[in-house]
Structures are given as C-alpha cells and as structure tokens.
Here is the input.
Amino acid sequence: MRLTSRYRFSASHRLDTPALSPEENRKLYGKCNYPHGHGHDYVLEITVEGPVDENGQVVNREAMDALVRERVLARVDHKNLNADIPEMAGSVATTENLATLVHRALAGSWTLPARLAGVRISETARNTFELEVA
Amino acid sequence: MFLTRKAEFSASHVCANPAWSADRNQAVYGNNANSNGHGHNYVLEVTLAGNPDPVTGMVFDLRELKEILNREVVDPMDHRFLNKEVPPFDRTIPTTENLAVEIWKRIEPQIRRDGVRLHNVRLYETGDLYVDYGGER
Here is the structure.
C-alpha cells in the first residue's frame, strides 16, 4: 500500500551555473537566468509505502506531516533556494536538484515505519519532477 | 494498456478503536477520531490493465465498469456514515487504507477476466491525501 500526501511551499530561485559563460547561461536557462531570480508556489508530494498496520494505517498522518514540516517545509518555505539553503551551494537550484535535496533531508532523519518511496515536486502546474526511491 | 475510470462519493466516518481511550485514539488518528464523525468527498480512480479487444478496440466496456463501480461502491457508500451503514466498517476502522482494500475486494472479482485485471485502486480522501493499493503482493 502506498500513501501520498501533498504539501505546498513558496520559494524563489535563479538558475545559473559557473561552469558556463554569462552568455551561455542566458541562452540555456532563458527567463530562469534573469539576474534577480523569481519564485514559484511549489507543490510537494511525498509517497510512503508499507503494509497496513493493525490501526488500519500505512503511516501515522501527524508524524508524517511533522517530519515533512520540520525537515523540508521549515527550511524552504518563503526562502531563496540559492541563498538560504546551504546544501544548494555548488549546485544549480533546479527542481531536479531540489527533489534530490528533499529526498536527502527526509531520508537522513527518517523515523517512520513505512518506507519513503517517492518525492514529487511541481514547480508550476506544467512542470513536475519525480524521484522514485528504489 | 492501462485504463482508468474515476468515481466520486461523499461519506462520513470516524477513525477510532472502541477499545482505546480518547487520548490514545487522538494520538493515532488525530482529529479523524472526533467522536461524532466528519465527512469527505472521496475520489476513486480505478485502473485496469489489459490489451484492447481486437474486435471492439476496448480494454473493458466502460459502461459495464461504471455499473460495477456504482453497484459496489457509489450506491452503497455515497452519503452514508461508513461506520454505521457500510459493513465491514462497523467492525473495521474506515481509514482510507482499509477503504481502498475493501473497494479492491468488492470490484476485483467482477473485473478479472481473460486478458484483463485490476491494476490499481487509488482513493483520494482529500485533494491532498490519497492511497494506492495494488492488491496482495
């Protein structure tokens, strides 16, 4: 059985890599490279997997919400992903990299009996990135 | 090929173990344990796996699938208090997980036939919380 819970956070970012010239960055990232950054209302979906326990649950909802709030939302909501997230230093603040970071933040302090099975982030309603945890 | 059909029903429930104290129920089920119950607009997505029939071009007759979902799920559960009116939830706690398992049990035997099987039951309790059940694995 899998259970998926949806959360929301708002954050700003700018896509730019020192590996490329300013000209190349502009060409590659387009509007996402504008110098002062921009923001999104991200939608985060966390999926857990496991057997249904004797209480009829895969996971205790409040324990899951508390973990996601503490490990992820408190650190990214109303933040600048480039400036405020130390783990993002040295990598581009793409939503692909953000999904990896969210997975690490959760997996590193996972205390729930159900397995963390997936991290899915929608940057806008048109762009969604999904990390399936093996 | 996968085919998914959606159905909706609204129902009330309470998630609490009658053998436990109010505090323990609150710890396990949060405000889902509030004693007089509350309701949701459940959204059910049923996914079938199969190959399109060479004659009809269909994996499954959608009208028949709608009838199965209405008969087994929507008619008995819509606008009902699950704990009081829909067995086995008089003795099984109607969490979204248990509800998904019950829906699977009710519809799977009626869907299974040559070349077609029930692949997944997704049940949304709210727009922000859903479970996926693929049967006993």
